[in-house]
Amino acid sequence: MHEVAPELIGATLLVDGVGGVLVEVEAYDQEDPAAHGYRGRTPRNASMFGPAGQAYVYRSYGIHWCLNLACAEEGRAEAVLIRALEPTHGLETMRERRGLADPRLLCSGPGRLCQALGITREHDGLRLDGPPFELLRREREPELASAPRIGITRAADVEWRYVEKGSRFLSRAVPRA
DNA sequence: CACAGGATATACT
DNA sequence: GTATATCCTGTGA
User: Fold this and answer.
1) Cα–chain-centroid distance for residue A146?
2) From the Cβ of A112, is strand C under 7 Å away?
């Protein structure tokens, strides 16, 4: 899972032809107190337990959707949270869904990203390598940076947040980058 | 910068 | 059943 998380940076993710290049992800595993799968399987996080390659979509704070890529085989809870991407496809559609013109605010955060790409519970459990998803291998080798994860209080010291260094489309700037 | 908004899950009474 | 916590964002100060 710590191999696939950095691999995702720079890859292109599309949903119904709308999306862009991933610039920010965070890794979670079952021993991680901050992860949903830590206390066992529930109806909400069932998709996090694999099989690898499927989407895990969950509701955050009762308002926002967040998209994860499950990367564990059946029985384990490992996932990569898609936090931000650089919009390259379907800008008009995203602007319409978000009601904003500034491309930097379209996908700079997990909740915003899901709104811009139209991701809901309907997509929970779907594979990311099949319709309506498209996952394109990255064409360039981005410069990576790692940092502590965001918005959590448990295990906040591990640097499992991977970003493209210097990207203008991150949800937050990387400290000391 | 503080804070409301509110689904889902766990911990407590 | 009630209380508390959470992988967050928009709005108003």
Assistant:
1) 15
2) yes
> In the structure, how far is the CA atom of residue A77 from the C1' atom of nucleotide C12, in angstroms?
39
A161 touches strand C (CB under 7 A): no
* Backbone dihedral angles phi then psi of residue A161, each to the nearest 5 degrees: -100, 125
Please name the residues in contact with A28: beta carbons below 8 A apart, sequence gap of 6 or more: A34, A35, A36, A37, A68, A77, A78, A79, A80, A81, A160
pLDDT attached to residue A154: 85
User: What is the distance between the alpha carbons of residues A97 and A106, in angstroms, rounded to a whole number?
Assistant: 9
pLDDT tens digits for range A99-147: 888 889 999 999 999 999 999 999 999 999 898 999 999 988 899 999 9
Nearest alpha-carbon partner for A53 in A79, A32, A76: A79
Q: What is the pTM of this model?
A: 0.92
